[in-house]
Inverse folding.
C-alpha cells in the first residue's frame, strides 16, 4: 500500500513541487498544511506515515510544530525542509524529534532518497 | 628518553602557554574552574618534566602547584604581586623548556624558588620542605582504559560530499546512534558539528550498543547521504588527548610539521594541474576513445580535489591559537605603560589556514600593542576626556562569505590624519601637495609607510620591531587587505580582511587586448554583453547602465597597457566588486572558467601593482591573475 504523506509549507509553489515529486514516485499525498498550527491539527486527523515540514511559517514555525507532533505521537516521522543558512533551526528540529532533513533547492532524487530511508523502504542501501 | 624530547617540548610549551593564559584571566575574574585548570597545567608540566629527568623545571612547576593549592584550599588573597610571581615562574619554565630542547643543561633558579617558597609560607604559615620531584613522580603513559562496556563499538561514518549540510547530517548520525546506547565519544565534537565543521566528511562515534553491529548498521541504513566506513570493537582513546601526553603507540592523532602540510598542499595542487593538463590532451582524441578517458580523468580530478580539500582541512586552525596569546601580551604592555585595559576577543573559534595565521600572529600583536601604546590614554587623560578609566580593546573575528575579517578596535585617542600627513612630508615620503590631496582614510594609511608615525616617543613597545608598513605587507602577502578607520578622540579600528585559505581559486578567464588574463570569481558580480549604446560616454567618465545603477567603466586593456583591439561598439563587461563599489571592466570576450592553483609571483614581477599571482592553465599556458582593486588604485 502506498505510504501516506502530509506536506507542510507556507508556499504553494513548494507544496506543488513536493507533491509532484512524491506522487510521481508512487506516494499518496493525503493532505497539505500552510502553517504550523494547521500542521499539528492535520497530523492528528490524518496520521500520515511521513510529514514534510517547512521551517519558516506563520502562526507556528516548523520547529515548534515538529515538537508538538512528536510529543503527541512518538512514532511520527517528520522530515524538515530547510534552506542553506538554517542549520541552527535544523539542529533544533532534530533535537525536537525530527527524523531527517532536506536542504532547498530540492532535487527529486535527494527528496526521494531521504523519504525512502526514513520510511525504511531502502534498507539495502 | 631522548626520543620523547620533541614531544615533551611541544606538550610542555602548550601547558605553559595555557598556564599563563589562566593566570591573566584569574587576575580579571576568579573562578574555581580557572584555579583547577591552573593546577592541572602546573601538574602536567611537573609530571612530564620529572619523567624526563628535568628536575629544575619539575621543581618550579611543583612550587607553582603549591601556590595554586593554597588558593584552592582557602580563598587566599589573589593579588597582582602573586600573579606577577607566577607569571615569572611560567616564563622561566618556558625558557627552561627551550633550553631542554637545545639540550642545554638547566640550573634550578634558586632565587625564584626561594621567593615562591616564601610566598607559600606567607600564605599557609607552613615551612616548605625542599623537594626532589624528579624521582618521586612517575610518568603515566596514556593507556588508562576509558570505562567502556564490552558492547562498546567504534563507528566511522562518511558523510557524502553531495550533502548540502554535512555538519547537520553528522549531528543527525550522532543523534540516531545515541538512541542505541550511551555515546562514549564523538569526533569532531558536537559543538564543532553544530558549527558545521566536519573535516573530510568523517564522523567517528564510540557508542555502547547492546544491539551490536547489526543495530548500528540498521540505524545507518535509515539515513540518507551517509556511508558506514567501519564498525568494530571500541578501543580506548588516549586519556584526555589535548591535556595529557599524546599516546606514543596506537595513537589516533600525530603531530605533523607545518612544512610537511605545505608539501602535501603543493603536491595536491600539482596533481590538480596535471589532471587539467590530461583533460586538455584528451580533447585531441577521437570520439571513440574520448569518453573512457574522460571518465577516468573525471574520477582522477574528483580524487585529486578531495585530497586537496582534505589537506586544506588539515591546515585549518582556529584563530584562537593566535588570540590566546593576546591577553598576556595586553596585560604586560598595559602594565608597562601604566594603562588600564580590558581586552575582549570574539570569534576565536573561526578557522583560518595555518599559513595565514602564522603570518599574522606578529602583525596582530603589533596592532594590539599600538592600540594600547598610542591609542589608550592614561587614566587621568581618559577622565579628562569623559571616558571610563579602563580602556577597551576589542578583537573581533568574523566570517564574511569566503573571507575572514579580524578587527582590532580601541576607544583611545584615535589617529591624527594631519599629523600623519606632516610626518610623511617631513620624511620625504610624499610631497606636501600630494599629502594635502589625500582623503582622510588614505592619510591614515600613511602610517603604513616605513618610518612614518605620530608617536611622540619611541617606546620599547611598539616604536620598534615591525611597524605598520610591515603589518600591511604581511597582510597583503597572504592575499588580504588592511584598512584603517579612526576618529580623533574616539578610537581606531584596524581591519585585516583575509582569505580563508591560500592557493586554490576559481578564475574567470577573459580576453583583452589579445591576451588572456584571470579574474578571481569571488570578486565577479556578473558578466554582461552590452551594446556600445548602453555605455554613457558623457563626461566626466564613461558609465554602464547595470540594472538601476550606473557603474563606472574601465577598459581592461587600457588599464594593463595593452592595445585596445576591439572597438567600443559591442562589448563584454565584467562587473566586479571593489571597495568603493562595483565597477564594469570592458573586455574583448569571456574565455571560460577554471579552477586554478595560485602561484605567488617572484621578483621583480611581485613589485607590479595589480598582479595577484600567476597560474598555469590546463593547456599549459601561463596566465596572470589580476588584483583589480589595486589595478584601479
Amino acid at each position: 500500500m502506498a505510504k501516506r504523506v502530509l506536506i507542510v509549507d507556507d508556499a504553494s509553489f513548494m507544496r506543488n513541487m513536493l507533491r509532484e515529486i512524491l506522487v510521481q514516485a508512487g506516494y499518496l499525498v493525503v493532505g497539505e498544511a500552510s502553517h504550523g498550527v494547521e500542521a499539528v491539527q492535520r497530523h492528528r486527523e490524518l496520521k500520515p506515515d511521513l510529514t514534510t515540514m517547512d521551517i519558516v511559517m506563520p502562526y507556528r514555525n516548523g520547529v515548534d510544530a515538529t515538537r508538538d507532533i512528536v510529543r503527541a505521537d512518538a512514532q511520527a516521522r517528520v522530515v524538515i525542509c530547510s534552506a542553506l543558512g538554517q542549520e541552527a533551526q535544523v539542529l533544533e528540529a532534530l533535537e525536537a524529534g525530527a527524523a531527517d532533513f532536506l536542504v532547498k533547492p530540492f532535487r527529486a532524487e535527494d527528496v526521494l532518497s531521504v523519504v525512502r530511508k526514513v520510511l525504511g523502504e531502502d534498507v539495502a542501501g | 628518553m631522548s626520543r620523547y624530547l620533541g614531544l615533551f617540548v611541544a606538550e610542555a610549551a602548550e601547558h605553559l602557554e595555557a598556564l599563563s593564559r589562566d593566570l591573566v584571566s584569574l587576575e580579571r575574574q576568579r573562578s574555581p574552574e580557572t584555579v583547577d585548570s591552573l593546577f592541572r597545567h602546573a601538574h602536567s608540566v611537573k609530571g612530564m618534566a620529572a619523567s624526563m629527568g628535568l628536575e629544575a623545571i619539575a621543581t618550579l612547576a611543583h612550587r607553582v602547584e603549591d601556590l595554586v593549592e593554597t588558593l584552592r584550599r582557602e580563598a587566599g588573597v589573589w593579588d597582582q604581586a602573586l600573579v606577577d610571581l607566577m607569571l615569572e615562574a611560567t616564563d622561566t619554565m618556558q625558557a627552561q623548556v627551550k633550553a631542554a630542547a637545545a639540550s642545554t643543561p638547566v640550573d634550578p633558579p634558586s632565587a625564584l624558588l626561594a621567593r615562591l617558597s616564601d610566598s607559600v609560607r606567607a600564605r599557609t604559615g607552613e615551612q616548605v620542605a625542599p623537594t626532589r620531584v624528579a624521582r618521586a613522580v612517575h610518568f603515566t603513559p596514556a593507556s588508562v582504559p576509558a570505562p567502556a562496556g564490552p558492547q562498546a563499538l567504534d563507528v566511522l561514518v562518511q558523510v557524502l560530499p553531495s550533502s548540502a549540510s554535512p555538519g547537520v547530517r553528522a549531528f543527525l548520525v550522532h543523534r540516531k546512534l545515541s538512541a542505541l546506547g550511551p555515546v562514549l565519544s564523538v569526533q569532531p565534537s558536537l559543538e564543532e558539528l553544530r558549527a558545521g565543521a566536519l573535516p573530510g566528511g568523517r564522523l567517528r562515534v564510540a557508542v555502547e550498543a547492546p544491539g551490536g553491529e547489526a543495530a548500528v548498521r540498521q540505524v545507518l541504513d535509515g539515513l540518507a547521504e551517509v556511508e558506514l566506513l567501519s564498525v568494530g570493537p571500541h578501543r580506548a582513546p588516549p586519556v584526555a588527548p589535548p591535556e595529557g601526553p599524546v599516546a606514543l603507540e596506537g595513537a589516533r592523532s600525530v603531530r605533523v610539521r607545518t612544512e610537511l602540510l605545505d608539501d602535501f598542499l603543493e603536491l595536491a595542487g600539482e596533481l590538480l594541474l596535471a589532471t587539467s593538463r590530461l583533460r586538455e590532451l584528451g580533447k585531441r582524441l577521437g570520439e571513440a576513445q574520448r569518453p573512457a578517458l574522460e571518465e577516468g580523468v573525471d574520477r582522477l580530478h574528483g580524487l585529486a580535489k578531495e585530497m586537496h580539500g582534505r589537506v586544506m582541512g588539515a591546515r585549518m586552525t582556529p584563530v584562537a591559537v593566535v588570540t590566546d596569546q593576546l591577553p598576556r601580551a595586553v596585560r604586560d604592555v598595559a602594565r608597562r605603560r601604566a594603562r588600564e585595559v580590558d581586552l575582549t576577543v570574539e570569534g576565536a573559534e573561526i578557522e583560518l589556514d595555518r599559513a595565514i595565521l602564522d603570518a599574522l600572529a606578529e602583525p596582530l600583536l603589533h596592532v594590539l600593542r599600538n592600540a594600547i601604546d598610542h591609542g589608550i590614554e592614561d587614566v587621568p587623560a581618559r577622565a579628562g576626556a569623559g571616558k571610563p578609566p579602563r580602556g577597551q580593546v576589542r578583537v573581533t573575528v568574523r566570517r564574511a562569505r569566503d573571507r575572514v575579517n579580524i578587527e582590532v578596535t580601541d576607544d583611545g585617542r584615535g589617529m591624527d590624519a594631519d599629523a600623519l600627513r606632516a610626518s610623511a612630508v617631513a620624511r620625504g615620503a610624499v610631497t606636501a601637495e600630494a599629502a594635502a590631496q589625500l582623503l582622510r582614510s588614505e592619510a591614515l594609511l600613511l602610517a603604513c609607510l616605513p618610518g612614518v608615525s605620530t608617536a611622540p616617543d619611541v617606546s620599547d613597545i611598539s616604536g620598534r620591531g615591525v611597524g605598520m608598513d610591515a603589518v600591511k605587507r604581511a597582510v597583503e602577502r597572504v592575499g588580504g587587505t588592511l584598512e584603517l578607520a579612526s576618529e580623533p578622540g574616539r578610537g581606531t579600528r584596524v581591519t585585516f580582511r583575509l582569505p580563508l585559505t591560500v592557493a586554490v581559486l576559481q578564475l574567470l578567464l577573459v580576453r583583452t587586448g589579445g591576451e588572456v588574463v584571470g579574474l578571481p570569481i569571488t570578486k565577479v558580480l556578473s558578466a554582461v554583453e552590452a551594446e556600445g549604446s548602453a555605455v554613457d560616454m558623457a563626461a566626466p567618465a564613461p558609465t554602464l547602465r547595470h540594472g538601476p545603477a550606473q557603474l563606472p567603466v574601465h577598459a581592461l586593456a587600457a588599464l594593463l597597457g595593452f592595445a585596445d583591439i576591439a572597438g567600443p561598439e559591442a562589448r563584454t563587461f565584467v562587473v566586479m566588486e571593489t571597495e568603493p563599489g562595483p565597477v564594469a571592466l570592458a573586455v574583448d570576450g569571456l574565455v571560460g572558467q577554471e579552477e586554478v592553483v595560485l602561484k605567488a609571483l617572484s621578483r621583480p614581477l611581485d613589485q607590479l601593482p595589480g598582479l595577484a599571482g600567476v597560474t598555469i592553465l590546463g593547456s599549459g599556458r601561463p596566465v596572470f591573475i589580476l588584483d583589480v582593486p589595486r589595478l584601479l588604485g
Notes: Chain A has five helices and five strands. The two ends of chain A are 21 Å apart (CA to CA).
